[in-house]
Each structure stands twice: as structure tokens, then as C-alpha cells.
Amino acid sequence: xxxxxxxxxxxxxxxxxxxxxxxxxxxxxxxxxxxxxxxxxxxxxxxxxxxxxxxxxxxxxxxxxxxxxxxxxxxxxxxxxxxxxxxxxxxxxxxxxxxxxxxxxxxxxxxxxxxxxxxxxxxxxxxxxxxxxxxxxxxxxxxxxxxxxxxxxxxxxxxxxxxxxxxxxxxxxxxxxxxxxxxxxxxxxxxxxxxxxxxxxxxxxxxxxxxxxxxxxxxxxxxxxxxxxxxxxxxxxxxxxxxxxxxxxxxxxxxxxxxxxxxxxxxxxxxxxxxxxxxxxxxxxxxxxx
Length: 290
Ligand SMILES: Nc1ncnc2c1ncn2[C@@H]1O[C@H](COP(=O)(O)OP(=O)(O)OP(=O)(O)O)[C@@H](O)[C@H]1O
Ligand SMILES: Cc1ncc(CO)c(N)n1
What we know:
- The chain has 290 residues and is an alpha/beta fold.
- The protein contains eight helices and eleven strands.
- The chain has helices at residues 19-29, 57-71, 84-104, 143-151, 162-169, 176-188, 235-248, 253-269, and strands at residues 5-12, 33-45, 48-54, 75-78, 123-126, 157-158, 193-196, 208-214, 219-225, 232-233, 279-280.
- The strands form two sheets. The protein has a nine-stranded mixed beta sheet with strand order 3-2-1-4-5-6-7-8-9, with helices on both faces. Strands 10-11 form a two-stranded parallel ribbon.
- GO terms for molecular function: hydroxymethylpyrimidine kinase activity; phosphomethylpyrimidine kinase activity.
């Protein structure tokens, strides 16, 4: 197999449930090599975010350029980008990376001939992180505009939750029809695929839950059973990383999204309680019972 690789561009969560720590653990579980460029440090526990320390935007972008040009990953995943300068700069850098990748291809050491083909163009998975699960803002002023103007036009798969889709589109989402309307609006910003997560939707506060996967040609609902009383941390980061991993393994977007969502929902059913606060889903211990 060719070596599957993903680079995550995200913030640090010292409690290990979200951010780059969660991303790298999820990628490893899927058998994918992970690189990580850090956008900001947080002071954070399993109970919530206590502080935020962004790195200078120019420095973040240099870090991203270094690692993309070195690892040449076919898939890049973004989490908390935090600053408009990072979001806008990444949008511009991505155009350059796509041209570079087109000239030289992915740097994939050959391991065996039965390889899955790596994507011919690199894939960008964007999790548009706005705030932490406990409501602390993780996006500075001007961030939404930077997403709309600079990053959404080059995004392959966007993975907003309901509040993020509302903020990006200005459309209030109360039911599944609103989910479709907001997802279609996001496609108009230039996104190729939207995976709109329905976890926050009151319509399904009962037993069912659904995420919507939509492109200009396709629309699929990913239905599941709602796990009651789930009080978790880092589910969004873990889902986007699982999706990025499945794409790096060569799955097309609909299959990658379905597999990532199914994986996450199983994890939501048996989280790890690692600290004083909420449970995490990014890791499963050998001796953990289902
Ligand atoms: N109680 C639940 N039971 C089963 N699946 C769930 C539950 N809550 C969320 N999910 C699933 O988890 C994924 C993340 O959904 P959600 O809408 O909560 O995203 P999120 O807000 O980004 O997560 P977080 O706020 O924890 O970062 C989706 O695939 C969703 O269907
Ligand atoms: C570092 C980081 N990224 C993203 C989130 C969103 O869950 C978080 N809480 N912390």
C-alpha cells in the first residue's frame, strides 16, 4: 500500500480529547500517518477551555508551508484556525499547494503494488470551529468573513455543526428542511461537499439523529440512534479526522463520510472518562470494555 498521510492544522488541547492531540490519535487508529501544524495553545481540561494563546499568524502559515511541502499529504484537515489571518492565508497557500502537488504529485513511498490510488488533487477537509463544546469562543472577530471569502471556495469537505452552519450562512436551522437550505447555501460559497452534523437539532432530540451529506449532485441522510445523555468533548475534531483518514485511505467522499460517522457513533456509545469533566471519543484502550 502507498503510505496514507494526513496533516492536521489545529489547536492544542492538553487534556487530549480535542485538537491536534485527538486528531493524531484518530489518524493512528485508522492506520494513517499524521503530521500536525499548531495554530494556538489552549489551557483546557476535560471540563472546558480556560485560556487561549494564539501563535502569530505568519508563523503558523510558515509552519504549514514547511510541512505540506515536505510531507506532500494528499489530505489536509483543519480544526481551530482561530485568526482571520490564518484562515485567509491558508486559503491562498492552498492554491499554491494544489499547483505544486499537480506538478510533482504526492510524495508517497511505495510499499506494495496493491496500492489504493492517492487522490490526483489534494483534498481539504475543513471543520469550521467556532467555539468549544462549553461555549468558549475559539474564533476571533473577522473569522467568519475570512472563512466565507478565502477558505470555503477551496474546501473539498466542510463539516459544520448546526450553530456553525447558522453563523456561516445567517440561516436559522430548526428542522431538516433548514439543514438542506443552509447546506445548499454553503455549496454556493464554493464548498464541494458539506457534511452538516445534526447533533444539535431539536427536531431529533428523541431517539434518532441524522447528519446531512450534500454536494451539487448528491444528497444523503446518515441516520443513527441517539445515545441518550452523551456529555462529550472533541466529537467534532474526531469525526473530521476519521473522515480525513478514510479519504487518505482512498475512499470516495460519500463512503468516507458514512464510515467516519458510523465509527464516531460507536465511540459515542462507549466514551472514555479520563478526567473530572466530559468523556472523550478519540481513543479506545485495549482493555476498555464496550
Ligand atoms: N447523542 C448522540 N448520539 C449519537 N450520535 C451523536 C450524538 N450527538 C452527536 N452525535 C453524532 O456525532 C457527530 C458530531 O455531531 P455534533 O452535531 O454534536 O457535532 P459537534 O457539535 O461538532 O460536536 P462537538 O460540539 O462535541 O465538537 C455527528 O455525526 C452526530 O450525528
Ligand atoms: C484545541 C481545540 N480545538 C477544537 C475544540 C472544539 O471542540 C477544542 N475544544 N479545542
